[in-house]
User: Which sequence fits this backbone?
């Protein structure tokens, strides 16, 4: 029986630890939070969100390169999903910085949902062992540009008040946001399970860390689902889970180099 | 003014073609396609651009040139009969013999009104001309061809098949010529591929990418750059990090069919 | 060239192995423009042996030489060569006799 390296074990432990912390905070956090517990410097969230965005853009780029090199349609959707995820952070950071929290949360929630669906489609294709075809540059460009256009449209529509409120400061998420985020949480969680199933067959480090990243994204989104005020402890734990998820994305990217050097399938 | 080679991708790399009256050094080891490319330059000149040409060969016999050209669909004998092209087989001492600024090939240049010339290969001069005199003789030959307003291609042999060494002649020929095109054999994933790049054009910009090329039944065809690889010319290419990562990423998500 | 029989003509042109090799070389490669040394290298013979035969073929008019500095450059006399080929054809049609 092969032993799992300590690093992998510790990495996997992050998921139940974050879940436990969130559950505890959700139970313990009062309905009206003491302002001393709110930590919301104006530039901090956009700055740390930048890290998540950049890592996600890198993963989206590598997915695109992978598709163009192999024709694997799985990567078209995985890449599109991660791109949508990255754009969610870009959009929300922009409007949070401007003080428009409802618009920020509307954009991010919808983009998270789009990202989760695209990512899930990629995982399903991978599980179904879909065949590779000749890469068509237009295919990936179309999807990526489509994701970008969607974000622009959502931004404009949200600014014009086309959507019902997704977030009320001091109250928290509204039912529309809960439905959208809740769906995204479930889809990301299922995607994570799908990726871990692929990992169980191939033992690929890339899949291991990618799957954990998906799980932490789901955990982080669940925190946003639960948070009542921007800058509160629940929100920060959720953000931290997603930042750790981004680190796991990076580890998955670095795992590609190690696999090639060893000469074994990654 | 540009002199197109007729190989469209190469002309694009040269930003329109060779410069009129220039001397181009076409360097490569055995089997890289120097003769094919040089012949194609002359055949295209004669058939597409109304520029007659002269092919000077030292080792390869004209009969072999005719046969090799025929495999690409080029009828050299017919072009010779039409006065558009001439294949001359000679020795280096004859080529560098100048008497009162006249050279033995001058009569042929005038006879067919040649505008293009190929010398295949200039490396043979090293076997006949002392090293101390070689640069001077080359310089005189180059100037003579320029005076005749010929756009010249000299092929030259590089002895390194693979690896990161490049030595053409020991006399600084690369400084005498106006343009250098390098042909190399590179190993990519256990396959030998041919690569072409323009190293220099005096007085003009050029494509600086290393491109793969093939010798097809129609002649030289230049394909895409080796954009996804680094270190191709060193003989030990490797994919760029993102290219490697992309492939590894794709392979990770490929589920083996049961 | 004097009128002669086919046999005599062929004897003059290809009476020796080297002459035959030279004719074959120049007919297959009419663009050769080279010194005796260069030609000898191409047919794998010694320059001394080739020089005599080249002189004979020059006298016959099949080949021509031109002096460039200290080099004698040999090439095929295409017009004369054609004339000789026609002459051979005529002689063959005429039964080989004058």
Assistant:
């Amino acid at each position: 029986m092969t032993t799992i390296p300590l690093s992998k074990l510790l990495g996997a432990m992050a998921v139940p630890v974050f879940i436990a912390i969130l559950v505890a905070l959700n139970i313990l956090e009062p309905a009206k939070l003491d302002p001393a517990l709110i930590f919301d410097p104006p530039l901090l969230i956009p700055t740390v969100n930048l890290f998540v965005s950049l890592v996600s853009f890198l993963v989206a780029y590598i997915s695109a390169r992978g598709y163009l090199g192999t024709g694997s349609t799985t990567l078209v959707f995985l890449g599109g999903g991660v791109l949508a995820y990255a754009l969610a952070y870009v959009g929300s950071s922009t409007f949070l910085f401007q003080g428009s929290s409802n618009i920020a949360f509307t954009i991010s929630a919808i983009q998270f949902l789009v990202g989760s669906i695209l990512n899930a489609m990629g995982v399903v294709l991978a599980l179904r062992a879909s065949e590779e075809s000749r890469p068509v540059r237009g295919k990936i460009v179309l999807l990526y540009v489509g994701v970008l256009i969607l974000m622009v449209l959502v931004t404009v529509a949200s600014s014009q008040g086309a959507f019902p409120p997704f977030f009320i400061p001091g109250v928290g998420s509204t039912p529309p946001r809960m439905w959208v985020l809740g769906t995204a949480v479930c889809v990301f969680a299922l995607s994570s399970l799908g990726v871990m199933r692929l990992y169980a067959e191939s033992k690929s480090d890339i899949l291991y860390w990618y799957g954990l990243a998906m799980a932490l994204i789901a955990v982080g989104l669940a925190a946003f689902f639960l948070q009542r005020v921007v800058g509160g402890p629940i929100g920060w734990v959720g953000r931290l889970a997603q930042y750790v998820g981004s680190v796991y994305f990076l580890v998955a990217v670095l795992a590609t180099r190690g696999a090639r050097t060893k000469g074994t399938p990654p | 003014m540009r002199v197109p080679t007729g190989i469209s991708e190469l002309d694009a790399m040269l930003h329109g073609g060779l410069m009129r009256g220039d001397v181009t050094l076409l360097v490569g080891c055995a089997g890289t396609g120097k003769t094919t490319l040089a012949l194609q330059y002359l055949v295209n000149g004669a058939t597409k651009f109304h520029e007659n040409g002269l092919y000077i060969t030292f080792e390869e016999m004209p009969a072999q040139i005719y046969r090799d050209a025929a495999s690409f669909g080029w009828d050299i004998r017919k072009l010779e009969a039409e006065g558009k092209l001439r294949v001359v087989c000679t020795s280096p001492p004859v080529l560098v013999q100048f008497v009162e600024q006249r050279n033995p090939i001058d009569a042929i240049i005038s006879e067919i009104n040649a505008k293009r010339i190929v010398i295949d290969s200039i490396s043979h001069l090293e076997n006949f001309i002392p090293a101390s005199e070689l640069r001077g003789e080359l310089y005189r030959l180059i100037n003579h061809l320029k005076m005749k307003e010929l756009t010249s291609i000299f092929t030259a042999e590089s002895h390194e098949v693979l690896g990161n060494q490049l030595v053409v002649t020991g006399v600084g020929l690369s400084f005498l010529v106006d343009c250098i095109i390098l042909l190399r054999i590179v190993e990519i994933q256990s396959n030998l591929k041919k690569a072409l790049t323009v190293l220099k054009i005096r007085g003009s910009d050029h494509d600086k990418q290393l491109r793969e090329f093939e010798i097809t039944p129609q002649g030289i065809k230049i394909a895409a750059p080796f954009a996804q690889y680094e270190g191709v010319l060193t003989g030990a290419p490797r994919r760029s990090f993102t290219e490697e990562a992309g492939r590894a990423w794709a392979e990770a998500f490929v589920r083996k069919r049961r | 060239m004097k009128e002669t029989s086919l046999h005599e003509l062929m004897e003059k042109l290809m009476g020796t192995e080297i002459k035959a090799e030279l004719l074959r070389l120049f007919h297959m490669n009419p663009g050769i423009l080279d010194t005796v040394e260069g030609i000898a290298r191409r047919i794998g013979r010694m320059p001394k042996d080739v020089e005599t035969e080249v002189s004979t073929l020059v006298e016959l008019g099949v080949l021509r030489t031109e002096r460039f500095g200290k080099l004698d450059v040999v090439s095929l006399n295409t017009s004369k060569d054609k004339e000789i080929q026609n002459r051979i054809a005529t002689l063959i049609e005429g039964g080989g006799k004058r």
